[in-house]
Structures are given as structure tokens and as C-alpha cells.
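Hi U.,

Before I forget, here's the chain from the pilot set. I'm dumping it here mostly so it's searchable later in email.
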Amino acid sequence: MKNPILSVQYTRSNFEIWHQNCCHFLKERMQRKGHKKMSNFVKTTFLLVTLTMLVVWCGAFLGGQNGMVFAFVFACLMNFGSWWFSDKIVLAMHRAQPLTEAEAPEVFSILSKLSEKAGIPMPRLYLIPSASANAFATGRGPGHAVIAVTHGIVKLLNKEELEGVLAHEMSHILNRDILISSVVATLAGVLSMIASMFRWSFFWGGERDDRGKGHPLALLMISIIMPIVAMLIQLAISRSREYGADERGAQLSESPLYLASALKRLEVASKKLPLRDPQPATAHLFIINPLSGKGWDTLFSTHPPLEDRIARLEGMTRS
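Structure:
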């Protein structure tokens, strides 16, 4: 016959071990989330400061001291706009419009279910007027997030595949990388604009280097290098994000095959009907690369190969 005192002590010991394990798990998870949030904040701040210095240097190069002051004011306005309005700027670049529940009840139903499961407010839903199939997430964080889908992706995918795509975009929000992605999209556009200014300066003022404005070939070189710098910044933050969002999205939708099937169909559809007038500055935001995948686009691709992403997802079902 079992000693009741020993039995109680054994049960209590098991409970204490279970309680300690739970506390350790929760503490570790909270630390991980806090570290992720702080890491992205530091990355975003470093990016803004670095690009401010670059813009100020460009101003000094073009206009001396006055140009430097003007560039500094411009950089401050650029940083403020990038931090607070990057999502609105990105949505405007793609002419996205708010989508109502009456217009897309199935999409709202899926998004509402995923939001409840993820424990965050439901992101606002926007529609990109394009027959090409694609989607992206933007915003400052879980409380200020937007998911934009094209008209084509809503028509192309079935309910399960659409859930896989929305779970992927929801994972970008949960991983707290949408702010830096949105800021990079805005700043990459600004760098491209500055590069265009340098090109115009070369063509229209290239022979006036006797006034101390710099050698015309230097202007041309900077106009070529700056877009490459912008693309390298996008590369630095993009590739690993997609793998992470794929994995977490598969867990959120409870089936890796939903997203794997969606990516297969999106790959075929994007080749037949690519996004019209894609913006290189925002290419890294989309679930699949909207650029052509030829020439320079291949060299500076902001996405890992779709074959690798699909293989990883299908491997999750076997493990």
C-alpha cells in the first residue's frame, strides 16, 4: 500500500517542476520578444542615422555649406516621414485602397481568425488594383499594421492557400520586422530620387566643375552607386525574414502545405502576369519578388529562391 504522504510529496514535486518549467518558458519567450523588438528598433535607428549622414554629405558635395544645411533639414523631414508615415507612403506608391468586409468577406473572415489566434489586433486590409497575384504587410507594429493584397491574388488562390499567404504576412507583423521594411522601402525610394538628382546635375552642370562643385565623373559614379547601396540595404534585411515568416506562418495556419501550394501557384502566375510598373524600392515587401528576375534583378534579388522556400515548407510536414 502506497504511503499517502509520499504520494502527496511526489505530486507536489511534479507540480513544482512543471511550474518552474512553465515559468522558464514564459520568461524565455518574453525575453526573446523583447530582444526582437529592441533589435529592430536599433536597426531602424542605425539605418536612419546612417542615411542622414549620407544625405548631408551629398548636400555638402553639391552645394557646400548651404547645401549641407538644406540636406540636414531634408534628412530630418525624411526620417520623420519614414518613421510615422512609411506605411501610407508605400500604400500610395501602389495606389492601394481600403478594402471593406462587404467587398471581401472571405478574406476578412480568414484574417479575423488568424488575428485572434495570434493575439493581436486585426490589421487593416487594403486592395492593390492589379491583376498580378501578390501581397505584402506594412506598418509600425502589431497595433498599426496593414496587409495589402492584389486583386489577382484574391481571385487566384483558394481559401486554404489564401490563409497560408495571410498567415505569412501576419508573421511579418508578429516578428516585428514590418517597421524596418517599410522604412527601408521609403528610404530606398529617396536614395533613388537623390541619384536622379546627381544624374541631372551631371548632364546639365557637368562642365562647371571650376566652381568647386565636384568632378562631373564623381557625380555620375555616385548616381550609379547610390541605387546599388539602396538595394544592398534591402538585401541585408530581406532574405532571412522570408524564411522566418514562412515558418511562423505555417505554424499559424497549422499547415505548411497551404503556403507551399500558394507559392507554387504564385510563381506560375507572376511569370504569366507580372506586376505592372514594379517599384524596386518596395520589392522586398512582397511575398514573391515582383521584379522580372532577369539581369540586375537576379543579382540583387531581395527574396530567397522560391524552390528553397517551398522545399522547407514541405520538409516541415515530414519532420
